[in-house]
Design goal:
Radius of gyration: 15 Å
Distance between the termini: 23 Å
CATH architecture: 3-Layer(aba) Sandwich
Number of helices: 2
Shape: flat
Structural class: mainly alpha
Number of domains: 1
CATH class: Alpha Beta
CATH topology: Rossmann fold
Order of helices and strands: HH
Length: about 80
């Protein structure tokens, strides 16, 4: 979870993620984790800036051959 997604917008200060959306996201992540566990896998969840968290996770795992990501579309 990137903390920047829970701050106010740059124009008017409205929250980017309100309480209902946050609840939905948390429930979705919980459901995904439970589904993966049933299939013998797991889900790694971290809080922080992705550019820092992913780097730390790669270092911890040690044998990462590829990383895939997407860039969020930013409004001007």
């Amino acid at each position: 979870f990137d903390p920047r997604h829970y701050l106010g917008t740059h124009c008017y200060g409205f929250p980017k993620t309100g309480p209902h959306r946050l609840k939905f996201l948390l429930e979705s992540v919980k459901d995904l984790r439970e589904t993966l566990k049933k299939k013998g896998s797991t889900l790694v969840v971290r809080k922080g800036k992705p550019e820092d968290v992913v780097c730390d996770l790669i270092t911890q795992l040690g044998s990462v051959s590829a990383v895939a990501f997407h860039e969020e579309v930013r409004e001007i």
